[in-house]
Amino acid sequence: MKYIILFFLFINTAVHSQKSDDFIGYWINRDKSITIEIYKNEESYYGKISNSTIQKIQNKKNKILIYQMSARSNRKLYGGMFSDIIKNDQYEIKMKLINPTHMVISRANRLFPKKHYWNKI
Q1: What is the pLDDT at residue 13?
Q2: What is d(CA 101, CA 113) in angstroms, rounded to the nearest whole number?
Q3: Residue 87 to residue 99: CA distance in whole angstroms
Q4: Model-level pTM greater than 0.85?
Q5: How many whole angstroms separate alpha carbon 38 and alpha carbon 47?
Q6: In contact, 40 and 25? CB cutoff 8 Å
Q7: What's the confidence (pLDDT) of residue 30?
Q8: Are 97 and 23 in contact (CB under 8 A)?
Q9: Which pLDDT tens digit goes with each residue over 96-105?
């Protein structure tokens, strides 16, 4: 019984040890075509292009793509907008840490949101 309690205490500690600041840093998408830098300005999080192998995006270095994300928990950011340069569109997104080195970004308010997975570099 005490091992079960210790196990749940360990899991609880591991989950709550991830901070919103774990989002801060450089992230690369799965196909390694775009690198973004996520940073915090006061209470909001932003993301800008750091590097890209996509021709249409290469001249947009340092362009801000992610605007005004707010921390709802240690592992989730909500309420921000994503500016899609290629499709010339903007939409609301949410970001979730899977663990400190993996994150998923998905469109908010969609029945079947498309998910994009990112790795911290």
Answers
A1: 47
A2: 22
A3: 30
A4: no
A5: 4
A6: no
A7: 93
A8: yes
A9: 999 999 999 9
